[in-house]
Amino acid sequence: MSTTAPTQEGATGVQAFHQTELDAGRFLIQRCGDCSRHVYFPRESCPHCGSAALEWKTPKGTGVVYAVTTVRRKPADGGDLNVSLVDLDEGVRLMSRVDNLPAAAVRIGQRVKARVQVKDGRGLVLFDAAEGM
C-alpha cells in the first residue's frame, strides 16, 4: 500500500494515510521488510533498524492491557473513562481505551480485541475486553 495516498484534505504522508484508513474503518500497522518487526505509530523508517522498507499490514488486533488509569469525569460529561496502554500480539504498544467495560473494571493483563469506531467521519482504534482468548 502506498504511504503517500492523499487524504480527504489533500494531506500526504504515513500519518495522513493511517488516519484515512482509520476513517474508512481499517486499522493497519507497519511491518519492516528488513528486520521483520512491527511498528506503531506510523513512521517513515523503522525505529528498530532504520530501514525505509515498511509495509502496511492488518494486525490480528488482539492484545493485553499493559497499564490503565481512570480519568474522572462528571456523569453529565459521560462518566469515568479508562485510558489504557495495550500491547498488541504483534509486539507494538498503543494508547486507547477499553470501551465495553466500566472504567473501574479494566485490569492489567486483561485480553482485548481492537476495533475501529468511526464517529463523525473520524476513525479511532478502541478495544473491547475479550473473554476466553
Summarize the structure.
The protein is mainly beta. It has 1 helix and 8 strands; from the N terminus they run αββββββββ.
CATH class of the largest domain: Mainly Beta
Question: The biggest beta sheet, please?
Answer: 5 strands, antiparallel
In terms of quaternary structure, what is this?
Answer: single chain
Order of helices and strands: HEEEEEEEE
Shape: globular
The largest sheet has its strands arranged as 6-5-4-7-8
Q: What distance separates the N and C termini?
A: 30 Å
Averaged pLDDT: 90
**CATH topology of the largest domain, anyone?**
OB fold (Dihydrolipoamide Acetyltransferase, E2P)
Helical residue percent band: under 10%
The helix/strand class is mainly beta
What does this structure look like?
The N terminus is likely disordered. The protein is built from 1 helix and 8 strands; from the N terminus they run αββββββββ. The strands form 2 sheets. A 5-stranded antiparallel sheet has the order 6-5-4-7-8. A 3-stranded antiparallel sheet has the order 2-1-3, with no helix packed on it. By secondary structure, it is mainly β. It has 2 domains: 44 residues, no CATH class; 68 residues, OB fold (Dihydrolipoamide Acetyltransferase, E2P).
